[in-house]
Specification:
Helices cover 35% and strands 13% of the residues. The N and C termini lie far apart (55 Å). The structure holds NADP nicotinamide-adenine-dinucleotide phosphate.
Length: 684
């Protein structure tokens, strides 16, 4: 199957000069591979030196300027020929594709990554991480299996699309008035994605015409709206409706989901399964600071930006220096009389010169017109983020070089990043404040192009790193006794991230309350399934957040594939319910906890929202992306307690019309697949 881009190659290809100009913006390693497709000349893979990527490099794989020029010239010739009617050679064979992968990665990719990466590349067409499997049961059985999806952000949209494509009815319940989740809610100035946009997109809706490498919030919001519209999701969505409670009814083996619309009208939706897609980062967290309510000026949280408040000419305090404040502080600083940035810990900054840049027209052109260029460009981004700097944030138990690093490699990274900060700051007082004192990787590293420190260096900006003692009617008082009067306080203080599924009650088998079961320490099997909660699945659940590698969309795609696989298992197996085995769940969590304890964010000297009130890292995935991919490719029935329906479950029409009497007899006679463990469980 050909590259869809090629189908458009004859449209607007332009003259020689247009081609040559576009090639000036090429990502050369991707262009080399596109050239292999264009010419069939595999010798390019040895003629051109393998790229060598550097954390601080230009992304061109350290290829010498003359090599880059030669590749461009050859690509120009091949593209002009293509424009003039030359045929595109057939796709290279699999072993060549494999060599091409090694080339662009700059390493011999380990064998156990190959299928995972091939799927992402999807070079022969097809849908990467396709779930939407054929579910081979009668339409009437599917029709009866309704799913409630809670949340219409990135993950909920994805779940709806995949269920829809598998023919499973669903109701999408969304508290907001539109799709988009985080991109709907966060409208603060400067809000933009901090994963490369050509990667931060569904693998099956890979937008190649992002206006910026890291697009602004409005572009992302538009993307998710467009995808939802394309798939007709609105017809199945209840907007401005909140879920108050989901209760498992053992008799019917279905969930009763109590929802409330904006007029206060309550209703119970019955569902065979519930998918929580409520996200981790959407319940704004205000700090527990004495006197907070006494403040008489304006105040708001960054995720609920009050656009009605005029900031220009005002004295403003920002509390927090996390990813949100990092983006809005440089946007607002210039117009203020005075900005006080209250910092508890400084963020590490990852140099990203193109962070605010538009994608040049030439690059857009290449992505649009050059066969397979965009596939390889995305693959390159995916590979870079596959393990990211995972090795550099892993704790070496033998490390004795002090608490600001966790290994020799981490120390190397720390020194390089500290140097990057020092390069930008002359004032030693400010430098001491803005240089983090914890290991890189302890918290999320922020993409930086210099705007953050430039903002902090402004004459009207002051970084205050003293602890806040209290908030008064007129401002903020520090523990050292300094009082700062302000007109506005903006809380960039993050979210209730470790209070998973915080906004509604969930009662499972035997009336067990999910939040009681968690007791402030949320855990799940693969972030998806919890013992005592049959047919309840969570996307972006406990321990599925990432710090230095991957894109969260990748995780959601893996989780949704797994969940739709669960629906398939239930329906095709004739089961009414599946519940993760406690031993599987516990063993998984033991493994994850041990791995998290070995990462910089799990180090005892690091405190962050990745750790819950009990000190356990409940947010993060500590292993490689390929591990999550492998674990979630399809559910293993042996990981679950699977129960057959009671007689009342078999719908008449299935028994009589679709299955026939023989089928129905088989259905009824099938012994329930119940593990001894389930029977002997001490769970209530
Ligand atoms: P955050 O990372 O949790 O940052 C909260 C900030 O508030 C931290 O600097 C924290 O200090 C500080 N803070 C909290 N309580 C405080 C208190 N009592 N006194 C003083 N300071 C206090 O929240 P966020 O910036 O909203 O970002 C949350 C996550 O959202 C990010 O990590 C990222 O995953 C995501 N996000 C992504 C993007 C993007 O993709 N573009 C943008 C924004 C957010 P400590 O560090 O000392 O705890």
């Amino acid at each position: 199957m050909g590259d869809p881009a090629f189908k458009r190659a004859d449209q607007g290809f332009g003259d020689d000069r247009a081609i040559e100009q576009a090639l000036e913006s090429a990502h050369i390693p991707s262009l080399v591979l596109a050239l292999v497709h264009l010419t069939g000349d595999v010798s390019l893979l040895t003629q051109v030196p393998r790229p060598v990527y550097d954390f601080f490099g230009d992304g061109q794989g350290s290829l010498a300027p003359d090599v880059q020029a030669t590749v461009r010239a050859r690509a120009a010739t091949a593209l002009k020929a293509l424009r003039d009617g030359a045929p595109l050679p057939p796709l290279p064979p699999a072993d060549t594709i494999r060599r091409m992968m090694d080339f662009i990665a700059g390493v011999d990719i380990p064998e156990h990554y190959v299928s995972f990466l091939m799927e992402e590349l999807a070079i022969g067409g097809g849908k990467p991480r396709a779930s939407a499997p054929e579910i081979n049961v009668p339409a009437s059985a599917k029709a009866r299996f309704r799913v409630v999806i809670i949340g219409a952000g990135m993950s909920g949209i994805l779940a709806a699309i995949e269920l829809q494509q598998s023919g499973i009815p669903y109701v999408l319940v969304e508290k907001n008035a539109d799709f988009g989740g985080t991109w709907f809610e966060n409208s603060y100035p400067g809000c933009r994605v901090d994963t490369q946009n050509h990667l931060y997109s569904y693998s099956f809706e890979n937008n190649h015409d992002w206006p910026q490498f890291y697009s602004r919030r409005g572009v992302l919001y538009g993307y998710f709206q467009r995808i939802a519209a394309k798939h007709g999701l609105a017809a199945h969505t209840r907007f401005e409706t909140t879920v108050d409670e989901a209760v498992w009814d053992e008799a019917s083996r279905r969930w009763q989901v109590r929802v409330r619309d904006k007029s206060g009208h309550a209703e119970v939706i019955e569902a065979s399964a519930v998918i929580s897609a409520v996200g981790q980062l959407n319940q704004p967290k205000f700090p527990d600071i004495e006197g907070r309510d006494s403040f008489q000026g304006e105040s708001f949280h960054s995720a609920r930006w009050n656009h009605g408040v005029t900031l220009e000419g005002k004295r403003v305090a920002v509390i927090g220096t996390g990813a949100s404040a990092f983006q809005f502080v440089p946007e607002i600083a210039a117009g203020l009389e005075k900005l006080f940035v209250f910092q508890r810990s400084a963020p590490w900054l990852g140099p990203t010169p193109e962070y605010h840049e538009d994608v040049p027209a030439g690059k857009q052109w290449l992505l649009e017109h050059v066969p397979y260029y965009r596939s390889w460009y995305r693959f390159y981004l995916f590979w870079l983020m596959t393990d990211g700097v995972l090795d550099a944030v892993r704790i070496d138990p033998a490390w004795d070089g002090g608490p600001q690093a966790v290994s020799a490699l981490n120390e190397e990274l720390r020194l390089a990043l500290a140097g990057y900060i020092a390069m930008q700051i002359e004032d030693p007082g400010l430098l001491a404040k803005v240089t983090p004192d914890y290991p890189p990787g302890g918290k999320r590293m922020l993409r930086d192009n210099g705007t953050w420190l430039n903002a902090l260096k402004r004459d009207n900006v002051e970084v205050i790193d003293e602890r806040i003692a209290r908030i008064t009617p007129t401002g903020i008082v520090t523990a050292a006794g300094r009082a700062v009067d302000v007109d506005v306080i903006i809380y960039g203080t993050g979210f209730h991230a470790s209070d998973f599924l915080r906004t509604f009650k969930v009662k499972g088998r035997g009336g067990v309350d999910l939040h009681d079961q968690w007791n402030g320490d949320a855990r799940a099997y693969l972030g998806i399934a919890m013992p005592n909660f049959p047919n309840l699945f969570s996307i972006y659940g406990p321990n599925t957040n990432i710090v230095v590698n991957g894109s969260i969309i990748f995780f959601s795609e893996c989780a949704v594939r797994y969940i739709v696989g669960c629906v398939k298992l239930l329906l095709e197996g004739g089961y009414a319910a599946m519940e993760v085995r406690p031993d599987m769940h516990d063993a998984f969590n033991t493994r994850i906890d041990a791995a998290n304890a070995g990462m910089a964010w799990g180090a005892p000297q690091v405190s962050s929202w990745y750790k819950n009130a009990k000190g356990r890292v409940s947010q993060n995935w500590p292993l490689a992306l390929v591990d999550y991919w492998n674990m979630t490719r399809r559910p293993d029935p042996d990981d679950f307690v699977l129960t057959t329906p009671g007689p009342q479950w078999i719908p008449d029409q299935v028994r009589d019309d679709d299955m026939g009497e023989a089928g129905a007899r088989f259905y009824r006679a099938r012994p329930p697949r119940i593990f001894a463990l389930f029977m002997s469980s001490s769970r209530t």
